[in-house]
Design goal:
Order of helices and strands: EEEHHHHHHHHHHH
CATH class: Mainly Alpha
Distance between the termini: 66 Å
Radius of gyration: 22 Å
Number of domains: 1
Structural class: mainly alpha
Strand order of the largest sheet: 1-2-3
CATH superfamily: Cytochrome P450-Terp, domain 2
CATH topology: Cytochrome p450-Terp, domain 2
Helix content: 55-70%
Number of strands: 3
Number of helices: 11
Largest sheet: 3 strands, antiparallel
């Protein structure tokens, strides 16, 4: 009896099937976005589903050199000179505080509570709501475009309405705006598309890994090995010099 089971793919000397489709046919006819959807969801996407997933992936692929996943990757390459370990270091920097909000917010939304219930509970327990607020934006432009695309493609439903209501209710109760960030937008749209909330981290990892690879390659091409912080960029806050 087989110990490892999968409904995703089968490969032997005769052929490879991905969700029942021959790999050769997929290579000839499928886009990478279609392939991702097929592997994750089990069926080929409609044109609208493909366009929506593509929008999400593009929105998350790159956002500058400052996020932890990028600085970690570039630092790792600077020290190790190994492409794969540097990319892995970038991926390992993704988690609860960087990229993890998609899954956390989607899980919260999937419980089908009202915006008022969600906000009241967060305030009462002094919890930060995942998917809301941003260090740079008061209105996240990525969210605006994702929601616009969702409406155009027919994916604007109750989950998107809930996150919009949460944003309004948060501002009313906290006295300042905590915008729906890109993670909150993706969490709502992925649920509208019928994806399981546990794939939330997968959406971010799939997209941002492309950015990480680009930055590692740039580091390899243009920077000297063993980068380190200058003295002006660090401070020592321990005891003053003393005798042993």
């Amino acid at each position: 009896m087989a110990k490892w089971k999968t409904s995703i793919a089968k490969s032997d000397k005769d052929k490879t099937l991905i969700r029942g489709y021959e790999l050769e046919q997929l290579i000839e006819k499928a886009t990478f976005t279609q392939m991702i959807f097929l592997i994750w969801k089990g069926e080929m996407p409609t044109k609208k589903e493909e366009a929506m997933l593509n929008t999400i992936l593009v929105a998350s692929a790159e956002h500058g050199i400052s996020p932890p996943s990028i600085t970690s990757a570039r630092n790792a390459y600077s020290g190790s000179g190994q492409f794969n370990s540097a990319v892995a270091a970038g991926v390992l920097a993704i988690g609860e505080h960087h990229g993890g909000a998609i899954e956390s917010c989607a899980k919260l939304l999937s419980e089908n509570k009202s915006a008022k219930e969600i906000v009241d509970n967060a305030i009462a327990n002094k919890q930060r709501l995942p998917g809301f607020g941003h260090k740079i934006y008061t209105t996240d432009p990525r969210t605006t475009i994702i929601f616009k695309k969702a409406e155009e493609l027919g994916f604007k439903g109750d989950f998107i309405k809930t996150v919009i209501d949460i944003e309004k209710y948060l501002e009313k109760n906290k006295g300042r705006k905590f915008c729906i960030n890109v993670d909150g937008a993706i969490s709502a749209v992925m649920l509208e598309m019928g994806f399981d909330y546990k794939l939330g981290m997968g959406f971010f990892l799939m997209a941002r890994t492309a950015g990480i690879i680009g930055h590692v390659h740039e580091e390899a091409l243009h920077e000297k090995p063993f980068r380190r912080l200058d003295n002006e960029e660090t401070s020592y806050e321990g005891p003053k010099e003393r005798k042993l």
